[in-house]
User: Fold this.
Amino acid sequence: MPQPEYSLLLPVRNEAARIEGVVRAVFADLGENPAWEICFADDMSDDGTYERLLDLSRAFPFRLLRPPANLGRGGIRNLLAKEARAQILVFLDGDCRPQAGFFRAWEELEPAVAWMGKVSYEAFPASGFSRFLDRGSGMAKIGRWEPVPPAYFISQNFRLAKDVFHQAGGFRTDLRGWGGEDVDLGYKLARLGVAMRFRPEAEARHPSVTGLRSYFARLEDFGQANLPTLAADHPELAAQFKLELSRPPWSLLFLNPILDALCRALVVGIPAWPWPYALYRYAVFNRYARGYRRSFIVRR
Assistant:
């Protein structure tokens, strides 16, 4: 078997309802391109995802890994990087579908650069928050030739040379719960002097985000469990996340409980409405900033 030039690495957990669509979208765009290997890693799903992937592997040429225990968001990605046969790694979350031209867009790029792909969002079910993520948040605000801030580094869709990934130490595995391992890797790459750029042609489509109550709960947990650790390890992150606004006197306005309750009532209570982006930014900030502030209260 010839050595592939590129490895597409897809971590998956509990995506039984979507995984067939993801697999078919991958191979619809890939065709019979011998430069790529496709590798899925199931992180101990308990909804039938692994069994469905086993069935699909009989019809589609991809490798399927499954560790003996749940590794978490960082660990499962590190496993994929270790097992990849190619020297260029492309990570894509297991709930994202590559769009037309995805594989071609990732080929023949500068290997010393960390490239971020575009993540767009499905229009149905209608979600104002999906519209915000698609057009008004994070990478959506970055121009084609602008440097990508380390805090905007996302693991959903990116390309990195395997040796650079290992030089940076890969994804950390000591964080608790949801989120932060990608931001940490972004800062570690920045310390190595690795340039980060946006590659919008490499587009993947994410399901519409409608469960805002649970999404915001995860953000608050992230703020309490992981954000203090990340801010201690990467002090420059505090400015990017505007953590100074979580302390008096700014917190009297930005963490005002009445404004926060009203904001959540609007964006969670009427999720399909396209509220102004500022409303979503305020809601997101309140969730992780309240968790961050609570972490210090708990320590006392």
Observations:
- The CA atoms of residues 21 and 97 lie 7 Å apart.
- Residues 277-299 form the longest helix (23 residues).
- Strands lie at 6-12, 36-42, 63-65, 88-92, 97-98, 114-121, 157-161, 196-206.
- The first strand starts at residue 6 and ends at 12.
